[in-house]
Each structure stands twice: as structure tokens, then as C-alpha cells.
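User: Please predict the structure of the protein below. I'd like the answer in C-alpha cell form so I can feed it into my own downstream comparison script.

Assistant: Understood. Taking the following sequence of 338 residues as input:
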Amino acid sequence: MVNDFADRMKAEQNYSELIDKLPIEQLPVESLQMLDSPRLHGENPEHTRMLASIDAPLPPIIVHRATMRVIDGAHRLGAARIRGDEVIEARMFEGSEREAFVLGVKANIAHGLPLSVAERTTAAERIITSHPSWSDRTIAASTGLSARTIGNIRRRLESQGGAGEQVTARIGRDGRVRPLNNVEGRLKAVSYIKSQPDASLREIAKNAGVSPSTARDVRNRLQRGEDPLPPARCATNRRPGGAHLTLEPKDPPPAPRPNLVSMLQGLKQDPSLRFTDSGRELLRWMFARAIQNNEWDGLVEKVPPHCAYVIANVARQCAQEWQEFAETLEQQGADRSA
């Protein structure tokens, strides 16, 4: 089900915004409880002692008002007790205990001592059960796991009968509700494309309630004179009027990637780019941001453990921006050639 908390937590970039809006209060240290933490083995004493030795003020902890349970900040609370502090600064969260748990998981992958893979996996299992309508990508953003890993966990839980209530649609990170069987969405995309043939992929996707990649697939199929619904993989559905339709198959295996170095060198030699101010500006922008295959290998071990998941999230955000840039360019190219 769609709820206000899902809307607030739907996108990774909304996390800091949500936390910053929580009211701050001074709470007695002894009034707080340490229950229901995503950490399987409790707090790390060494990390707690390190925090206790810091003279600068630490960020406020986050507390669930209804239960006075610490959602985020167990080590900061422990440090306050070591120092003998009587009160601690806390941001107060209003919401259900299920929502508080999700917020706690998200907080512990965004900063501080990161959760282990086992802890994030256990948290993901719980969130899949408590929020079955959340998409794999939405849960992935909250747990620091990949969407593929979440999908695997969900299928394992479903085979064991522990994936929560059955749903027919899921809420994506953009807050939109999409059916698991997107036959209806594809048919809406067909109607919209026929009525608005010059519409962009984003516009088609928004009006049909499908992803931009699905909108592109539908448009390409129509241009080739094919059925907008792909062949069946495992089940069938029906078009209004009785004709059989099929569920969307998984994406085909990716095609081999062209060599990045060759593509960049080709762009560098292109006269329209090489001999114009705007072209040289574009080349500088591209070369500063392009990453070659496995170029990042040597950087992995240099990343401090407590920064790993934040940097991973930065990488995902950059990848998403590149994907949107690519789709816009492809759309522009298709429009010019039409």
C-alpha cells in the first residue's frame, strides 16, 4: 500500500531531507532503549570508545517517539554514557515501528559504522516481508544491496512462503505504482504513442505508468510493425476481447560493449568536436567523467570501510544520470531522423 512514509523514503536523495526536518529535543540518556537494531551483534565497543574520545559535538541521534527506541545512534548513545552525559540531543521520528526499522537500516548504510552484508541481507528479508509492495530498487536503496540481490532474496522468501502478503503492483523509487504484470501499461503506452506520436520516452512512460525502457521497447515494436507485447516466458494474460497476451519476459542478455577507448578517441578526432569551442568543451566534459573498464579496481581497497556504502550510492546516482543522458540523446537522434 502507498503511504506517506513510502513517499518520503522512496528516493535515496530524500534521506537527508527527511532527517533534517525531524524536530530536535534534549532527552535524558537513561530514558532511551536499545531494541530492534539491524545490527546482529549489537554495538562495537571499540567504535563507541572512539566516539567518546571526540571533543567535538556529535550529530543528534534519531529516536522513535512512541517507544523511545533509538533508531540511529547506538554508538553515540554509548559514548554519551561513557562520558557520563545526562542528556543527549535527538531527532524525534513519528511513525510506526516498521517505518522506524526501515529508517534505522537506511541511516546505518548512509554514515557511521556500516552494516555488514549479513546484517543488510537480514534487514532486507524483514523489509520485503513488512513492505511487500515496495519494488526491488526501493528496498535496495534502503539496504545498500543491489536490486538483483533483493530480487533473489524475494524469490527465496516466496519459495519458503515468507515474503509477506501477495501483491499485484509495486511502488518504485519514483513513488509510482506499477503492476507486476505490465500488459495494461504497455497497452496504455500504445494508445498514448498513437495519439501523441512525437511524445518523448519520459512523457510516454509517465502517462502509461511504465518505465522509460518499457516505453522505448513498445515504440520500437510499433515502428517495426510487431506486437507491443513480447512472447511469453512463463504465463499468459488476456487482451480485452479475449485474445491472449503474455507477461513481459526478462531483459535479453546485454550486447557486447564497444571499446570505450576507441569510442573516445573517435570522438576526439571528430572535426565537428575538435575544431569548435562547444565541441572541445563537450570533449573535456566527457574525458573528465568517462571511466574505462575496471579502471576503479585499484580504488576499492583505498576506500575506508565506513565510507564504502556512501560511495557506492554516489556511484549509483552517477550511473542513473548517465543513463538518463543516454536516453535523452537517443530520443533526440530518433526525432531528428524521423
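That's the full C-alpha cell string. The first strand starts at residue 24 and ends at 28.
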